[in-house]
Give the backbone structure.
Amino acid sequence: MFKNIYFKATLLSSVLLFISCDKDDTPEAENEMEVFTKAVIKVTNLSDNSSDTYEFEVEEHDHDHDHGFIAMNQEGEDHGDHTEIELESSSEYKFEITFLNESDPNNVIDMTEEVIEEKDEHHVFYELIGDGISYDTTSGDTLDSDGNPLNLVTKWTTTNATVVDVEAYLIHIPTSKTGTTRDDFGGATDVEIEFEAHVESE
Amino acid sequence: MILVEQQMLKLNLRPTLSLNNSHYFLSIKSILFPTAIIYFIAVGFVFAQDCKLNFEGYIIDSDSNLPLEAAVLEVVGTNYNVISSENGYFNFKNLCSEIIEIKVSHINCPDFYAEINLKESRKKNFYLDHKIRSLDEVVLIDEKVDNLSTSAKSYSISGTEKDRYSNSGLAVLLETVSGVNTLSTGTNIAKPVIHGMFGSRVGIIYNGIMLENQQWGQDHAPNVDLNAFEDVKLVKGASVLKYSGRNPGGVIILKSSLPKKIDSLYGKTILNTKSNGAGGGIVSSWVKTYENGTYFRSQGTFKKSGDLSAPRYILSNTGMNENNLSFTFGKNNIDNDLKIFFSYFNTETGILKSSHVGNIGDLLRAIEADEPGVVNEFSYNINYPKQSNEHFTSSVDYTHFINDNKELTFKYSWQRNNRKEFDLRIGDFKNIPSLNLNLSTHSVNSSYTWSNFSNEFINGIFFEVQDNYSTPGTGVKRLIPDYLNTKFGGYFISTLNLNNGLNFGFGLRYEYSSNDVYKYYRNSRWENENYQDRLGKYVIKEVLSQKLIRKKVVFNTFSSNAGFVKKFAKKYSLGIQHNYTERAPNIAEMFSGGLHHSLASIEYGDPFLKKEKTHKVLVDFEKKNGKLNYRINPYLSYSKDYILAQPAGFEQTIRGAFPVWEYSHINSIFKGLDFDFVYQIKDNIRFKNSISWVEAKDYHTKEHLVNIPPLVINNEVQFSLSKFKKFNAIIGNKFVNKQSLFPNNNSLTSVIENGKKIDKIVDISTPPDGYNLFNLNFNWGPYNLVSSNIYFSLSIDNVMNKANRNYLNRLRFYSDEVGRNILFQIKIKH
């Protein structure tokens, strides 16, 4: 009996010592490097090379209603539900979309580089609701191994005055690189932003 | 003196050697004669070779606790044998005071040997595992009844059934028992659900060790190899208080059999090949025993499978590998037992590629699509997403038999578990796991058992230290925080065998648990939840828009089991059990924070949760005799402060809106019924049926709970040909009803359809249709092969190759369940 007690006690204390020596260091914070926090669209008027830049960033907080975006335009104002991109009628524009990771303000990561490095596994798709605006591939864009353009750079053509809702997606590992609706592309959505394209009449 | 008193009792004499004056002369005559007799008998005892000892007892079926008739008992080395009577009773008379060996044999059972140190007349019961099935394998688990959860009855799974599932996992094997379902994440990852409860509410005890492998995770399957153990038992609705007090769902117990004290070498090898997944495996175990009580046992399992197939398409990226090893060294002496055990479990599992979604719009697309988004050609490659788990165990058991009645045990175990989850990532993080958790658990416990012919009392103490940390550098915020957990406590369990076949049991357990947690909170979450008030004082560091807190969370829990089992008319038994379980919230319920990819939802814990308290009442009525045997098991449980995750708004990210689920308390009611029956139609035809039904609701809102299994009915007809004894066949049918009782946890998302933006319901709540599956199983054997026995088995699951979806599969939105599978198995017993 006594033997057992001493044996148990020594084992118990050695186990305790072994454990308590272990964990006293505080864990390091994890830096999320692949997170997208901001999308930027630079709109250049091809006739006079003037440009505007629109930033899309989302504040992470809870809502009780179904959905609704809080996006900020370049002035930094809360613009309610949609950002408005203003365009002139009968014009051509170059849209350049880039992605940033600003989780660590001291180390802003250009995620567009990552997207281009993995061009076969990424695609940008703009879905338009409304008439009067169309977009197409253009030079200066990145092509994947099969020659499909990623749509990081696109040419947009306007006709008459109109308001068109646009949903822009960055798709990871799409099942197809061509299509007319979001469903055609499959894959997983990495970025989803929306804006209103307002075409003003002269 | 004890001896003399015993003899006197036998002669119906009472010790009357009082020398009270007033009775002295009157009592001399009345005591003189008996005293003389006693004296001579006593003298005879001392000087003669004590060859007047009795050894008697009962042979009992350990499963039904009913007597076994016609067992032959023999004193080895002599011609003395007796046969157990109708009520299982046997009696050896005039035995000498020495160590004898008793051999017990029964029809269809291998011989069992027991060493008895006969110093005085003794009573001893032998419990044999005697199954109704024409099983050629009987495993003698212990000399005493396994006093698991006081008098809670357990369900046993036969060795043959277990071997049949040697290539599947533990959860699939357990589904053969009524009241048990599985919660799966694809086909390869499955967890047992008992009476509608799973995760932390179901415990798995292997080799007397409580499995600690992040069981809180819905997609965390048990990291244990069923092939390392001979004995699988299930206790429904109760914790086994000796090991834990926090399993209101139930406990699964895996044990190795006790080797015999003879010189022998035996083993078993099983080869499996299956058509679905073009996979298979091999399981082999060997035991070497020595007459002096030493034994070695080694066992290994290897499994491999490629992509599984649903009836209409391949389930891309659902391959898996598994490698397991276990080793036991033991020494059984008269006075003590020692056992040293090691095991290693390693699995790599592919997760359906199509389940990789970005946001809730992607989930909706999957729900609406008829086929998975990604279907590639068959491959054995396991790509991302995938899980990689490793579990290492070592333990030491020492038992000291103080005497026939008293036993002291001491046990130390160490488990180390590592879980890696890999997602589809970009850039430098492509091959780095998003989750990399290490869990190390040291456990020390000691118990003292006092037992005699009819009663048993166990009390014990335990101490446990558990360290959980996430390997840094994953580049993803920790899903659960790092913590150090310390537990200690004690338990008391008693089982009393009262008269007339009435067993009464009571157990109580106290546990102190302290978690030292280091948790990072994002500032936005911190502000939304107003944590500054209650957690502000625990902040130790601020970095990268996060706050690190260090908090100690302490719980004191008491759990108890009480119940009785009454046997009557030789064939009926009625058990009523009341179990009270206090369960402290697990780490995920309190501190989880992260995105669940395949469900496109964010989950948060609540650091202020209280402990969950459950009252459960079970009734177990069984008839075991004759052609018709049945078992009815209704149950009811009420939980105060039941913890579960419920929808709690949305969170916006640049990916879109994600539904948020938060852990919170409700009061819940679970009620259900398990029903099993076996009808021996003829000598060679048997019909088996089992029904499992459970319903669970929020006690106040009356809303039904999520992920509760629907009604399941299993039917089976087993038959053998009387002329060809070595063949039997089983035709089975599994009917799963459509679950019509479920909560509405749907959300809305906006999509563009036909050039318009509309809101659509993302229906994750509606369960899929019910289904009927047919299975066939053919068995041949045993055949003689050199000095071994060889068996063959052919099974066809889902014979009709029917497409179906399972409500309890978290990936049911993405694909159908697997189609037909043809499994061919060769089993060799050496």
Notes: The longest strand of chain A covers residues 188-200. Chain A touches chain B through 66 residues (CB under 8 Å).
